[in-house]
Write a structure and sequence with these properties.
487 residues, mainly alpha, two-stranded antiparallel ribbon, 2 strands, 2% strand
């Protein structure tokens, strides 16, 4: 099934609706809510359709302005990009509903326009087949996410926002250096064209490409909050509104996605230019990030900060799994990405509900049950999907230091979550707080999605295994770009 112009719809639709929302802002919140909700529903439907098309055929190319690759800007739809589109819109819709139900969207200006621009940046980053446009969509993400982060806030939130944007501007600068080096050596920034040209580079140029590869991985490490470039995440996510931090659960995955895309397409493990470079760099950094996240969970003084450190721990786990760069490791990585995105978003939403209750009051039993389920998911315990995800990662990385850090990190996370749960739900003796059922539905739905991910682990991992196989055989992706000379 050829999707034609539908491939660009996940980028154009939210951009158009965001601009329309800004123009119609004077008509009140209802119009903005209608545009954001309707657009996100449409994005989910389009993303599912694109995923079906990608599952039943080779990668598909969309040429902006009908300029051929590598001279023009292209979008490429394959199984990985389709998966990330569905994950993004599938998370954005319930979180947006939660923002409306809890009233977070009216605590500041332009929330819905920024929300749509954020989705535009995410979808563009997942679809682009050009490294420079990956940089462009990163910048769209940076601007929109900063606006969302400081939404309705003052003081600490603004200070955390300044740190967040400063660190990411450093990443943007490094990204430009990397792109300039790659273009100077190869004369292209089309990712498929890079994959075709780099293996044939002379020795001198290969050394420059190693520099570009390291710079790119540093950029993706910043976006993915990997040690030693992780320090922006805990403060930023803890200071953000709960609904915004829940969407950010998928935003940090952009760094992991980019590292996986480049690590399998442009700099595959068997490439002489980067042989023994990327995986050995990612593995220790991922393990240290995982350990620091687990220690942060154990020592967190508030539930939002605990959720932020849980997000950091999940990113360490993602990069630890990815570092093997084998089809099995890639399949385990993708399964864990789905799990950790949903689990992290649920924990942020629950933390927001807890913070909204009166200090010192007895929290309702429903909220306690939701927290317990999210704690099980975050720690990777059975019966939820974190358990099979970590089992697959342990199989992908059969090294005792990896096993020790993953299992030890899970134990520390369990201790930290148990301590927080006891303090929140057992010690308070004041008046009972109330929890409107409408506010509990979305976190419960995300947790039920984790149950479904566990029950359907067989067909899901089968689909992901085929996705991973094709990622490690990039010939169809390169062929879809129809490069000059049949490269």
């Amino acid at each position: 099934m050829t999707m034609g112009h539908w491939i660009i719809a996940p980028v154009v639709l939210p951009a158009f609706l965001a601009a329309l929302s800004l123009l119609l802002a004077r008509h009140g919140t209802t119009v903005a809510r209608f545009l954001a909700l309707g657009g996100t529903v449409a994005l989910l439907a389009i993303s599912v359709t694109l995923m079906i098309a990608a599952s039943n055929g080779p990668p598909q190319l969309y040429r902006l302005g009908d300029w051929p690759a590598p001279f023009g800007i292209v979008l490429v739809l394959d199984r990985l990009s389709a998966l990330m589109l569905v994950l993004t819109s599938g998370l954005a819709l319930p979180v947006l509903v939660q923002a409306i139900v809890t009233g977070w969207d009216i605590r500041g200006r332009k929330f819905h326009a920024l929300w749509l621009f954020q989705l535009m940046g995410l979808n563009g980053a997942f679809l682009t087949g050009d490294a420079f446009n990956l940089f462009v969509f990163f910048e769209v993400l940076l601007i929109a996410s900063y606006g969302l982060m400081v939404h309705g806030g003052t003081g600490p939130r603004l200070r955390a926002g300044v740190q967040y944007i400063a660190v990411n501007l450093v990443g943007s600068t490094l990204f430009l250096f990397a792109l300039g080096t790659a273009y100077a050596v190869t004369g292209t920034l089309n990712m498929a064209d890079l994959a075709a040209k780099i293996p044939a580079l002379p020795d001198g140029d290969q050394a420059l490409m190693r520099v570009a590869a390291v710079l790119l991985m540093l950029v993706f490490a910043i976006k993915g909050a990997l040690v030693p470039l992780h320090f922006w995440l805990p403060g930023t996510y803890a200071a953000s509104p709960g609904v915004v931090a829940a969407l950010f659960a998928v935003m940090t995955k952009v760094g992991a996605y980019a590292a996986l895309r480049f690590g399998t397409l442009v700099f595959p493990p068997d490439l002489a230019v980067t042989s023994g470079l990327i995986g050995p760099l990612l593995l220790p950094a991922g393990l240290i990030t995982l350990a620091l996240g687990a220690i942060g969970i154990l020592g967190a003084a508030s539930l939002p900060r605990l959720a932020a450190y849980a997000a950091l721990m999940s990113m360490g786990t993602v990069f630890t799994a990815m570092a093997a760069f084998t089809p099995w490791a890639t399949m385990a990585t993708l399964y864990y990405v789905i799990h950790s995105t949903l689990a992290g978003a649920a924990l942020f939403l629950i933390a927001d509900l807890v913070q909204a209750r009166a200090p010192g009051s007895r929290l309702p039993g429903l909220l306690a049950a939701l927290f317990m389920a999210s704690a099980i998911a975050t720690a990777g315990l059975p019966p939820l999907s974190g358990f099979p995800a970590k089992l697959m990662i342990l199989q992908a990385q059969p090294l005792w230091p990896v096993w020790a850090v993953i299992l030890g990190g899970s134990f520390l996370a369990l201790l930290g979550l148990s301590r927080s749960g006891s303090a929140l739900f057992w010690k308070p003796q004041g008046d009972a707080a109330t929890l409107p059922l409408t506010q509990a539905l979305i976190p419960a739905a995300l947790l039920l999605a984790l149950v479904a991910l566990t029950v359907l682990a067989g067909p899901v991992t089968a689909w992901l295994a085929e996705t991973a196989r094709l990622l490690h055989d990039p010939a169809p992706y390169i062929l879809a770009n129809d490069l000059p000379g049949g490269a």
